[in-house]
Amino acid sequence: MRDGVRRLRRGAERIDAATPADRDRSVDALRAFAILGVVLGHWLVTALVADGGTLRTSSPLAHMPWLAPVSWVFQTLAVFFLVGGHVATRSYESARARGTRYGRWLGTRLSRLFKPVAAVLGLWTVATVGLLVTGAGLGTVHALLKLVLSPLWFLLVFAGLTAVTPLVARLNPLWPLAVVLYVDLIRFGFGGPAWLGWINVAAGWLVPFTVGAAWTRGELTRRAGWVLLAGGAVATAVLVAWAGYPASMVGVPGATISNLNPPTLAAVAFGLAQCGLALLLRAPLRRAMRRPALWASVACINLSAMTIFLWHQTALMSVTAVGLSAGRLPGLHTTPDNLIWVAARLAWLPVFALALTVCRAAFRSYEQGNRHHRHHHRVRRPSRVVHVNHRTVEAKEARRA
To answer: Is the pTM of this model over 0.85?
Structure first.
């Protein structure tokens, strides 16, 4: 046991030593927090209920709406778009300074997003055919595929915003915020068509993305962080309490209005509060990341961020499927309508994490690529593989994310 602890400590120290001194570790910490928030949020509010021979999706928020504050903690997409806007703007400006063409810059960034998607789509294509051939109901297959494919909307939006980084890098966040405001006013105030809400898929997430770009330009002081946190929190409270917006910041099955699908003004205001809190936490996070053990954990999560994001629902479903052989298990196959289910679901989280670890080990090469080939590639650029004491330590690129 002690030998294992020592090896882990030495590994963490090597990763810490291999990290460039000028790297802003708070950025990686915020990205890791955002990814883990999404994963834990989905694992806590997504239920696959076994009804006879079929599986249907449900949520504890539909049966226990007073649990809505849970969604305030784990709905962290705004933080991810904040960091994405910051990193994309910094990366583009650096590439432009080096004379790198826009097409090459964009291709490099998008390949990091979409290479891991191929493995997910390939496996689930085979799994879908297998399920249908073995007699699984269409309702079950639809429920499973919806859980697997729903995270891909995020990648499409993120890729779109990354592609227009040169155009929006200096855009004031108030402009997309105004679009969200007017769209919601027309939809909910004047009975406009529901399809108008989909404009907010781009405009809503453009708000934190452009806040991230402003961060890159050095325009966000600590005071700005407090303004975003306080203003966003007050606006969210007013919209929920008096304007009829749902308290939950994630979609709830059966609800007439979703704050997330598409994003509403309440979700965007809440996201601004999260952005403010993230900006205020930069200095404390930098200090915390000086600890080798903490930094090594954050670095490992960042190295497999897309793999974790894309496969966490598959991990949940694989545990659910295997568990069916033992019957309807509490917190796994039962209706999420009481606190017993919540307690049981919390107990299942380590099992989901173990299944996700297996998925990460099996599919992370799609995200990280062939390390030997990457290290000896003829194109000279900062490597993501650093040699320390003749041992290879994975690390992020020095000035890329």
So the answer is: yes
